[in-house]
Structure formats: structure tokens, C-alpha cells
Amino acid sequence: MKHTAKRRLINRIRSKLSDKQGFSLGELLAATVILLLASQVMAQGIGFATRMYNETLSRSHAKQLCSTLTNTIETELRYTTSISTTGMSADGSSQLTAYFSPVYGQTLSGFLMVDSDDNEVTGAPGGEIAIRVTDRENQVVIQRLISSASYSSYELKVEVQNVTYNIAANTFSATLKINDKNGNELVASTFNVIPVNKLKINE
Predict the structure, then answer these.
(1) For the residues of 15-46, what is the DSSP string, one character each?
(2) Against a cut of 0.85, is the pTM above it?
(3) Burial of 199 by CB count in 10 Å (0-12 exposed, 13-18 middle, 19+ buried)?
(4) Consecutive 10-residue runs of the chain (203 residues): their mean pLDDT?
């Protein structure tokens, strides 16, 4: 039955094409409407597929950025020798306000978020992770932990939400959030670091 109906439709189209009168106005309008509807469905499908592809790439790049920043911050905190802290929570953790950077430090440094012009930013959507250091001429220098190109590919932003030190456990704890340009969270990570050196605290 299906093959018979299909054959009849094909024969009808052939007869119309060979007929000098061709298709009627109503048939042409119907065909045009069908083509427009099909085109709209295809356009929406392609748009959705493209959007999902870009979101997948952004999330994948955010995970890679988070991993890179985690490793960099872990190195900074693991090999520091001196820190400054303030306050103490119920679990014995104090907020880290400054530390001696084993890579960039001449004096105590502090984590901060900056924009492309090295201006400090706070809150969402975040910025690029940097540290504020003082050079030998006693000038304040903003030093990014990783290249700006690592953020710009997908316009990613980072928030350093919390960096603490627990003196009893001798452990640093830090929380990172990777956001898109609108502040929507893509990846979050909390990690702990045990310093290898004996620390001078608030000295």
C-alpha cells in the first residue's frame, strides 16, 4: 500500500511537470509554505546544535582553566614560608590575607582578581587571578598567575571565593569558581594544600 501511494504521487508529479499548464497557484503556495516551515525547523535545529557545541567547549575549557589555576595556586601555597592571617572561624581556620610567594615574592603578596587593565575587581563574574607583589624598588606590581590568553578564548572569568589556613591541621583551603562572561558558574573546585615548610605566621 505504501509503495503504491508513493508511486501514484511520483506519477502525479511527473504528469504535472510534463503538463504545459504546470502547477496551480494553490499548489505552488502550499509547496512554498512547506519549504518555509522546513527551512525554519532546520535553522532552529542548527542554531540549537551550535549553541550546545559552544557550551560544551566552554565547559571543557573552564575545567582545563580550573585545573591549571589549581596547580599554580597549590605550588604558591605549598612552598610559601610566611603568611599573614586575620580572624578565626569555629573550625579554627583563619582568612589568608598575604603570603610570601616562592616564585614572585620579595615581600608578602596577596591573591586578587583583576580585569584586562590590572584594575582590581570583586564579586561575580570575577576576573583574572593575580597576586600583588612589591618589587625591590618598593613598587607595587600586579603579576598574573597564568597568561590572559587562557581566559580570553571563551571569555571566562574566575572568582577566588575563599583562601584560609587552619593552624591546627597545618592546611590551606581554597575555593575557585570559573564563570562565563555573564557570571554563570561553569566549574567550581575546593582544594586543600599542606605546606612543606615551617610557616612564620603574622610575624
Answers:
(1) HHHHSTT-S-HHHHHHHHHHHHHHHHHHHHHH
(2) no
(3) middle
(4) 60 59 64 76 73 77 88 91 84 87 79 82 79 75 80 80 89 90 86 92 85
